[in-house]
Structures are given as C-alpha cells and as structure tokens.
Amino acid sequence: MEMLAYVNGEFLPESDAKISIFNHGFLYGDGIFEGIRAYSGRIFKLDLHLQRLYNSADAIHLEIPHTRDKMRELILRLCQRNNIEDGYIRPIVSRGAGDLGLDPRRCLEGPTVVIIARPFDLLYGDKYEKGLKLVTTSHRRVPSQCVSPNIKSLNYLNNILAKIEANMRGADEGLMLDLNGFVCEATADNFFIVRNGMVVTPPRVTNLQGITRETVLEIAEEMGLETREEFFSLYDVYGADEAFITGTAAEIGPVVDVDERIIGDGNPGKVTREIMGRFRDLVRTTGTPIQEKRL
Ligand SMILES: Cc1ncc(COP(=O)(O)O)c(C=O)c1O
C-alpha cells in the first residue's frame, strides 16, 4: 500500500503529493520542520516536538496556518491512515509559493504545510553494538550570531557539507565545532561525553536543543549521575571515558572512535549502554497512542 502524505488540506498518495516549483521552501530553504518518531504505535514526545515546531516558526516570522491542536490531530490522523507502528514523522511548514525574488511578502497564498509519516526502524543497524566512528569536520557550525542553531529550519547546507566530508573520510558521522573550536554537535545529532561518571554535553546556545538530548539528561539524572552543559574541546573528547550521539532518527548511538582516537576501550561504554536501555524502555512505554482515538 502506498503511504499517504498530507499537503495543504489533503491526504494524497505520496506520489501525487506535490508542491509548486516557486515554493520558497524549495527555492530558499525558507521554512521549518520537525523529525518525530513513533514506537510501538505511540508518538514519542509529540507535544515537545510541536512546541519546537511553533517556536521555530515564531523565530522566522512564519505563521503556521493551523492551531497546535489541529497540527497534532493531522499528525495523528496521517499516522492512523498509514497504519504507523514504528515510524518517522516529518511535518514541514514552508513560506509557501511566491515568485523568484526572496521577499517573503510575495508568498501570497500563505504557508505550505506538508506531513510525511512512514515506517522506520533502526538507523545504524549493528553499529548500536559495535559503535560509531566520527571525524571532526572542517565545516564549523553556523554561529547563533548568524542563524540560531535552535531553529530547526529547512537550511541544512552547513550540516550537509559536514556530512559529505564525513562520508568522504569514511566516518559514520561528522563532529562539528563552533568558531572558537569548542565541540557543538554532529550533523543531525547532539553529542555527549562521559567523564568520571559525569555526563557532559555542550550548552544549547551552539546546537539544536534536541528532544533526545533533553531526555538523556533526564535519564542520566534518574540514574543518579551528575550532568553538565558546558563547553569542551576535542582534547576532552579524545580523553573521554565514553561518548555518544543523540537524535530522533539515530536515537542513542555509542561513539567508539573520534579522529582515529579510540574512546574508552573501543566498545560502547557502560553508562552509554545503560542510558540506551532506559531510553528504549521509555520510548516503548510512553508517548501519544496513535490508534486510541479514532479521528
Ligand atoms: C542539527 C541537529 N542537531 C541535533 C538533532 C537532534 O535533535 P532531536 O533529538 O530533537 O531529534 C537534530 C535532529 O533533529 C539535528 O538536526
């Protein structure tokens, strides 16, 4: 069965779901999006994702043409119609169709709302057991003085360039630094180190306030571990006991190699594995049920 997608008021087979070539999301990356997961028929942290979607929209002066409740209902309805159990959901709101100039006032029809919901399982296969290899990329993360990394915008070129470099260098992911040389995040994931039982991640001013990142900080506190949000350098990464990335698609990915330095003993660390286990329990037992309420 072909999956349906939602496009401006209609549920259409994905192959019929189309937007204008003059859409400013396409022409200029002028828009915002979310990446959301469903596990065992429940949507994980749906309301936090919706909150971030609306915060991103506010930050770029974009008015989403639906209330938050309506967006929530559309997401649930699409998941129901696509029979999503374990899936990935992608709401996208762009400035809409305009003309070739970049002035958003020319987008006279108003924003375009698209929602995609497809089955999805593990991103990294056996790497959750073996661990991931990262390289530090030469592309620095765009600083918040230019565009806040907290806006989940359709402009991912900074991250894509870093990802291309990581691919070319045979790594699973690229680690990005800020302009001062402090560690920020991976290309689509937040980054953590574990040092003397302390779980440390960079402050959110230089990276996306990931929902998995927040969840991991909560899990670490429940485990009785000290957590810190502070700047650190590659020196701290190379000498860390453990390291991992976090993201909606990647979940928690143990990191065992950064720039050809082995992290810890070269295997996913004990704290990381405990956090991964607790995270898996949490995603399968909490969240908004997709099928409970027939819409
Ligand atoms: C640049 C960037 N950093 C971090 C993340 C992780 O955020 P989350 O855990 O909310 O998916 C993502 C993915 O959404 C991302 O694109």
How would you summarize what this structure contains?
The chain is of the alpha+beta class.
| Contiguous runs where pLDDT drops below 50 for at least 5 residues | none
Query: How many domains would you count in the coordinates?
Result: 2
Chain oligomer state:
single chain
Rg, Å, rounded: 19 Å
Structural class: alpha+beta
Order of helices and strands: EEHEEEHHEEHEHEEEEHEHEEEHE
Largest sheet: 9 strands, mixed
Mean pLDDT level: 97
| The top level CATH class name of the largest domain | Alpha Beta
* Annotation, overall tally of beta strands: 17
Number of helical elements: 8
CATH architecture of the largest domain: Alpha-Beta Barrel
First-to-last CA distance: 21 Å
Task: Please identify which CATH superfamily of the largest domain we are dealing with.
Answer: D-amino Acid Aminotransferase, subunit A, domain 2
Overall shape: it is globular
Bound small molecules, deduplicated: pyridoxal-5'-phosphate
CATH topology descriptor of the largest domain: D-amino Acid Aminotransferase, Chain A, domain 2
User: What percent of residues are in strands?
Assistant: 25-35%
Helix content, binned percent: 25-40%
